[in-house]
Amino acid sequence: MREFLDVLIFVVIGVALLWFGYTLFASSGIPALGGERGQRKLKPKGESKPGEPQTCPVCSAKLQGGELVSSAAFPSLNGGKDRFMHIRGCIYCLTGGRERSCPVCKIMLYENEIIISRLFERPGHRSHVHVIGCSRCKGPRSGRL
């Protein structure tokens, strides 16, 4: 009877270790253990293909290689992967060469107004920026509270 209990205990421990190992490696993305089951394939959208010029969200200008959009990203408030970001614009709209407009409410922006957005950082992929609005339509003085 004692040997039967020892074998039963070893079988239970073995099954528990197998279950723990399977759940550990299946969630890490190893295909042989079913890791691709919950992952989705990211298809590139129309303008987000790698190597294509970046577009300024303020004036919709296509930027050449090396030209950047002036922005400031702030630390995450909740410890997650998303953070607030202020976008001022590119070199073309900041120097006055192009009209600056909010992509949400379509009003013309002054030099000191910004676009409020959220920056989502994705490990292994390009970061994603979601525009919320300008400092007039979505800012603290907009009356939305």
Write structural notes for this entry.
With 145 residues, the protein is of the alpha+beta class. The chain folds into two domains: 2-33; 47-145, no CATH class. It is 20% helix and 17% strand. It is built from two helices and four strands, in the order H-E-E-H-E-E. It has helices at 2-26, 91-94, and strands spanning 70-73, 82-89, 115-120, 128-134. Strands 1-2-3-4 form a four-stranded antiparallel beta sheet. Strand 3 and strand 4 (128-134) form a beta hairpin. Residues 33-48 have low confidence and may be disordered.
Secondary structure blueprint with pairings:
Blueprint: H1 2-26, E1 70-73, E2 82-89, H2 91-94, E3 115-120, E4 128-134
Antiparallel strand pairs: 1-2, 2-3, 3-4
The string of secondary-structure elements, in order, is HEEHEE
- How far apart the termini lie comes to 72 Å
Overall spatial form: elongated
Summed up, the domain count is 2
> How many beta-strand elements?
4
Strand order of the largest sheet: 1-2-3-4
Quick summary of this structure?
This protein is an alpha+beta fold and 145 residues long. The protein has helices at 2-26, 91-94, and strands at residues 70-73, 82-89, 115-120, 128-134. The longest helix has 25 residues, at 2-26.
Feature tags:
2 helices, 2 domains, alpha+beta, 20% helix, 145 residues, elongated
